[in-house]
């Protein structure tokens, strides 16, 4: 039986298509390699605690409104070795306070913590985190409004991610907050240390502004 020329032509085209597409590799894996490389300790910004928290210590990065008040409460917790405030979760490198305040960089004001897990677990630390700010207000904390004041847990590794989700679910289920929790849980990103005048702000300005306080358990 004679095969019509049209069928032969379509077969050739299809064969060429299979040949081309079978050689195509999605860029996802290469991009993920790039992302992993960008977040290795040696490639993190100077001052990022995640570069080297010290032997036996771990790092947590938490956002929940103005970082002055969050740092002041967090620094006093047993097992906390060191704290600093800065910017993370945005699209630009080494942003200034003014740039972050514009809401255009995508960063959140955050406190970064070095803690001793034998004295205070990540789960216990998150317990304080959910008490020191209102996790139900989207892009707002007190009178401060904007995406830079959003509630976010930036996790380091699978273990922290699982713990963060578990604690958020638990806090949501006990009904202490009348509205649903909007806290995001996302992988840690480069942390850009804020300007010197924002570090230990309430230590140097005891009567300075804060909208954070520890609520009853």
Task: Fill in the keyword field for this structure.
Peptide Methionine Sulfoxide Reductase, Chain A; two-stranded antiparallel ribbon; 217 residues; alpha+beta; globular; 6-stranded mixed β-sheet
CATH superfamily: Peptide methionine sulphoxide reductase MsrA
Report the average pLDDT across residues. Answer: 86
- Cα Rg: 23 Å
Span from first to last CA?
84 Å
Number of strands: 8
Question: What is the second-level CATH architecture?
Answer: 2-Layer Sandwich
Strand content: 15-25%
Taken together, the total number of domains comes to 1
The secondary structure category is: alpha+beta
Overall geometry comes to: globular
Q: How many helices does DSSP assign? A: 7
Characterize the structure shown:
With 217 residues, the chain is of the alpha+beta class. The protein has a single domain (41-204), classed as Peptide Methionine Sulfoxide Reductase, Chain A. Helix content is 34%, strand content 18%. A 6-stranded mixed sheet has the order 7-6-1-3-2-8. Strands 4-5 form a two-stranded antiparallel ribbon. The longest helix is centred in the first third of the chain and has 18 residues, at 5-22. The radius of gyration is 23 Å and the shape is globular.
Question: Would you kindly provide a brief summary of this structure?
Answer:
This protein has 217 residues and is an alpha+beta fold. The chain has helices at residues 5-22, 28-38, 67-74, 97-101, 122-132, 157-173, 201-204, and strands at residues 58-64, 80-88, 108-115, 140-141, 144-145, 151-155, 184-187, 192-193. It contains 7 helices and 8 strands.
């Amino acid at each position: 039986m004679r095969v019509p020329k049209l069928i032969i032509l379509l077969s050739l085209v299809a064969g060429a298509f299979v040949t081309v597409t079978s050689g195509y590799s999605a860029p996802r894996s290469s991009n993920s390699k790039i992302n992993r490389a960008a977040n290795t300790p040696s490639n993190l910004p100077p001052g990022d605690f995640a570069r080297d928290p010290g032997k036996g210590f771990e790092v947590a990065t938490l956002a929940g409104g103005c970082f002055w008040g969050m740092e002041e409460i967090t620094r006093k917790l047993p097992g906390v070795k060191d704290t600093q405030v800065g910017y993370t979760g945005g699209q630009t490198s080494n942003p200034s306070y003014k740039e972050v305040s514009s809401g255009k960089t995508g960063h959140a004001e955050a406190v970064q913590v070095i803690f001793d897990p034998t004295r205070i677990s990540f789960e216990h630390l998150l317990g304080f985190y959910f008490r020191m700010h209102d996790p139900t207000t989207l892009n707002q904390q007190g009178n401060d409004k904007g995406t830079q004041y959003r509630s976010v847990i930036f996790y380091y590794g699978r273990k922290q991610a699982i713990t963060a989700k578990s604690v958020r679910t638990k806090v949501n289920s006990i009904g202490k907050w009348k509205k649903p929790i909007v806290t995001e849980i996302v992988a840690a990103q480069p942390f850009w240390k804020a300007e010197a005048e924002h570090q230990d702000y309430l230590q140097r300005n005891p009567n300075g502004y804060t909208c954070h306080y520890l609520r009853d358990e």
